[in-house]
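Lecture notes, structural biology module. Today: joint structure prediction for complexes of two components.
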Amino acid sequence: MLKFLIKGLFRDRSRSLIPILVVSAGVTLTVCMISFMQGYLRDMIYENARFATGHVKIVTRSFSDMIDQRPLDLALLGVSDILDKWETQPQSAELLWVPRISFGGLLDIPDENGETRFQGEVGGMAVVMRPHSDSRFDPDIERRLLKLDDSIVRGRMPATPGEMLVSEQMFTQLDIPLGHTASIIGSTMFGSMVVHNFTIVGTIEFGIEALDRGGVIIDFADAQSMLDMEDGAGEILGFFPDFEYYPDRADGLKESFNAILTDESDEFSPLMLTEYDQNQLGAFIQYSGYTLGITMFAFVFVMVIVLWNAGLMQGIRRYGEIGVRLAMGESKGHVFRAMIIESLAIGCVGSVIGTAVGLALSYWMQAYGFDMSHYMTNSSMMMSNVMRAHVNLRSYLVGFAPGIGATVLGAAMAGAGIFKRQTSQLFKELET
Amino acid sequence: MKQALIEIRDMVKRYPMGTGEFTALEDINLDLCKGEFAGLVGPSGSGKTTLLNIIGSLDVQSEGEVNVLGRAIRELDGKGSARLRSHHIGFIFQTYNLLPVYSVYENVEFPLLLLEIESAKRHRMVMDALEWVDLTDKLKSRPAQLSGGQCQRVAIARAMVKKPDLVLADEPTANLDAENSHHILRTMDQLNRELSTTFLFSTHDQKVIQYLRRKITLFDGKVARDEQMNGVA
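The predicted structure, tokenised, for the full assembly:
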């Protein structure tokens, strides 16, 4: 019987083709939208983690209160001691550590006579690019995290003390050769003025407008020396070894760390924050989840309305057929169930086609993405200029819920009308 | 005495109409026995189709008793009436009502699928039915590829394939020319004689009437006359 029904369904194109097209289109849109949103959120989490927040971050309690300003005078001191204490805990092995210092100052570019040729405000980031005295700070981690080797546009990585990378955009505007001297004029963590000379050995471009607009990168040890921060760091970022963020694991580590190492009475005691605790990322991710849920619901709702109408139109067109089937001795319940089975078949075929098309588009968006750099000229968001989709198992499955759900629900709503109708009335409509 | 297939006693059928009711059938008393070739005859609006629908358990009377094959129509629930139709009653319609997306073979097979008859037996029964109506060469044709007469012969095969006790035929020749009408009437008459299937027609077509062996005339919802006839066959 099932074979008989399915055969009839796919021979009658008006009963199968149009609903399949509607379902396929809806599922394609759903898969693309989910994959794109996944890519967007994943990118945001990933970029924030590697450039700003880490998967977890250790700062002083008072630093965390003003974390947006990254105040150097509230930075961590005794970094090695803090990590030594934490590493006595078994769960500490879960993380890789990288210390960072963010600083601001004036960048001064002298001319051939040593007079200022250019001077302007600059933001700087100090990362471990050369072997550090604390052997747990492996330069290779930052190279992989920040993809430094791939991001070098010209020149090379700093290899000796006093070498600096500048952003490619800024370097182009400065119109100086590589090897030129640049001075940073700023203040140490204790407030005294400092002037430190560097040699520009390379330029860098991360593909993130907020970072590429202007900035310098120096080695962490140089920054410690320049800013008078012996065994100090603005913040220590922790990463899971596969560089994927696991919110629950991060929360667990935070609770353990803070229970052991945070002293509520000492504003300079270390405090661990998770990625979601910073930059309102947790709230943003939650908000995005709700938005995605509402959008999905709206999609399903619209598809149900369309398929319900299609089902009603089909039902009206099929009164004759249904009348015959009732006359042949098929019960109303059986007719109704048959309609549900037909809709399931339509939903499955439409979902498979829609998912296949959606995945193909999503894979394309994952591979090539959309270059949004033109729209992000003044952006301060820690996001890649190229927005990509992200395809995972969810992308494969997500379309089936609205695809099959909407079709079956639409058929059930349309079929309910037929089910309630008097048999004799349906039969009478055979003759019309 | 012959076994009564259909027993109707003091049957009334009313339909709601506006604020009142319209009486479609009134004071109907009829018995129909196994093997009869009978017709409900009368002008349009006389209640022929309404009576056929009640006998076929597609509708329920307002008053009185209607028993078909020993089952009280009023007491049948949806499944019960569907079971009565699927096992014991075949329908033939004026407009054939074949399922357009299925082949001749599949249309005839459909009632057997409802009875869940196993495949090999089903195939034999379908081929037998198509042989009765002389359509074995059109197995794979779709209804749209057949003439009106051929479509009605498929409809007869579909009604007869399960060898029902009763066939209800509502104006079966209304859309056919004279030659095709006689052809299908001869087929039905032959099946009635060979298989002892009871046929009850609703008609006002003289071509059908001349084949009947019992003519029940309805007028204004009442049985005006009930007479035995010879039938041309």
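Point to remember: The CA atoms of residues 336 and 415 of chain A lie 6 Å apart.
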